[in-house]
Write a structure and sequence with these properties.
The protein has about 220 residues and is α/β, with parallel strands linked by helices. It is built from 8 helices and 8 strands, in the order E-H-E-H-E-E-H-H-E-E-E-H-H-H-E-H. The strands form 2 sheets. It has a 6-stranded mixed sheet with strand order 1-8-3-4-2-7, sandwiched between helices. It has a two-stranded antiparallel sheet with strand order 5-6. It is globular.
């Protein structure tokens, strides 16, 4: 079994390839407490060089990876990127929103738009209702996993909205300063998220991934 590992930040990781959560992974299951802890630990106070553990993947083609360990974190990170993109867009910063969207969806080698993170078990709900920039195109009824994804999206949207609301209601700031502060806060959230540090572990194939997946599960590792 060949294992390759190195440390990098989330910006580099998301820019380096496309990631797929295979069907053998458990569904997205983070609840309100998990989301709040994530927000408090890695976003709200914008910590520098915050380490969020390992991401274990296997090669699934050129610059394509299947996710073995870290799918809950990677999915939540993607959801928050979508929330920040939407907030910047709604506040008139289409260029900044577009910069974030490039880490959510971008052109592949065939010049076709493709989501950086794809999930097999929640397709097409996650892609259409959360990752898409703009109105949803499909009428899809949420099942349990999709409901968890939507709940996480709504909770993170509310957390960001509450921060912006407190800035806009600050009587000590002029209208111009409130707008500038709101934009800078969104940028600081973006940067805190993309500067998160991770140990990126690559395996050669899916068979090795199953071995690692079972080992991590047996030891109670939080996937």
């Amino acid at each position: 079994m060949k294992i390759e590992s190195h440390d990098q930040d989330l910006r580099t990781m998301l820019s380096s390839g496309y990631f797929k959560i295979p069907r053998f992974q458990r569904p997205y299951s983070w609840d309100r407490e998990n989301i709040q802890d994530f927000w408090d630990d890695v976003v709200r106070d914008t910590p520098a060089d915050y380490f969020i553990g390992s991401m274990v993947v296997y090669k699934d083609g050129s610059q394509r990876y299947g996710v073995v360990d870290g799918q809950q974190r990677l999915t939540t990170i993607t959801i928050l990127l979508c929330v920040l993109r939407n907030a910047l867009d709604q506040n008139g910063h289409k260029d900044l929103a577009g910069g974030i969207h490039g880490l959510i969806e971008r052109k592949n080698i065939d010049n076709q738009s493709e989501f950086v993170l794809s999930t097999e078990s929640s397709y097409p709900y996650f892609q259409d209702r959360i990752q898409r920039w703009g109105a949803a195109k499909l009428k899809t009824k949420p099942l349990k996993e999709e409901s968890n994804l939507q709940a996480a999206f709504e909770q993170l949207t509310q957390l960001v909205t509450d921060v912006l609301k407190s800035i806009r209601q600050d009587p000590s700031l002029s209208a111009k300063k409130r707008a500038e502060s709101a934009t800078q806060k969104l940028i600081s959230f973006r940067d805190a998220l993309l500067n998160l540090k991770v140990i990126f572990i690559k395996l050669e194939d899916e068979d090795d991934a199953y071995v690692i997946f079972e080992t991590l599960n047996t030891r109670g590792k939080d996937l």
